[in-house]
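Quick question about two entries, pasted in order.
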Amino acid sequence: MHKIYDDLCSLLMAQTIASDAAELQGMMVGMLAGGMPPESKEWLSALADFINQGEPLSDAVKQSLNDLFQGTLKQLQSNDFSLALCLPDDAAPINDRGQALLNWVQGFMLGFGLFQSDLRSCSDDVREALEDFAEISRMEEEMNEDEESEQALYEVLEYVRVSSMLCFNELGKRADGQINPPKTLH
């Protein structure tokens, strides 16, 4: 996923689009976890509205986003909890990785909110995850380049990854329009 992150960020920058790949994948996962049907094409126009003020995206950007969407959807629908967050390489400075994770979470919250507004039917686990995501998205502290900070970032990243799959497994839809059957996380 790191190469995809770098390549998509470079493409977005070349097109003078201010979003990064992490935020866009977060938005995609949020829309899917919020109940957007996988076969829907709404995600592309929602992203264009968000990142390009509703202007059409270039074919190269559309293709890259479609590739990311299809790969992400396949990971979400697999039974092996293989969702890989589109983030910078582990060799990138810790604050760059932390900011990308915050962007991912903010994108998730935005995408989720586009398709899920009634949280009364959500499980306590999903509601708690969303509250935690809201807290995470507001974090602004600089991190030190040390083992303790690396461990903390890893734990938050894993929590976000697993919690976003939990949201998708509870509220997301399969290609046939049915709600996903619950999966058990161990």
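Here is the second entry:
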Amino acid sequence: MLRSLYNWTLEKAAHPHALWWLAAFSFIESSFFPIPPHPLLGLMCLAEPKKAIRFAAVCTGASVLGGLFGYLIGWGLYDTIGAWLIGALGLTEAFPVAACHLREYDFEAILIAGATPVPFKLLTITAGFIGMNLVTFVLASIVGRGLIFMTVGVLFRLFGAPIKLFIDKYLGLLTTLFVLLLVGGILAVTMIDTGDDEGASGPCSQATEVNPLA
């Protein structure tokens, strides 16, 4: 079934309108959608390796714009929409920890979230809620999102055919690894700096609440 779904998705990824779908998924994933655009980007790059860098650039630009939308939700719509989204995504406990890290590490926190499986939408909404400097937020988002998406684009552009053969052979294993990375990123948000019950000492280890625009 996984193989059939993979082949069907690959056909759709090569559709003339697939670029618009990639942009849409990249945009909404940065603010509220739970599914990341990475699989679709990879499949589109597999289908047309010569356009891989173009696909990655679209993914990066749309993701940064989506991050600004997430920032807007946190800045002006948190009470009506943002809090509900954070809860629906199961990130309520991670929210004060994320806010603490943004205040402590600013640019670096957004950069790490943008380039790793840590849920980027959590950081975009939180950044707006605490009133993070907008220029810093945008620059960090461009670097972080560009790092992960453009790396994919360049790799597929250079090694498209061999990578496709590798994925065809190890699809099940790669799917499992991707899910584990995604879950690990979510857990990292809630566990980082917490330590154990007796020795938690990180600056954000005891964060349980957050005030806006502090």
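Reply: Residues 192-201 have pLDDT under 50 and may be disordered. The CA atoms of residues 134 and 145 lie 16 Å apart. Hope that helps.
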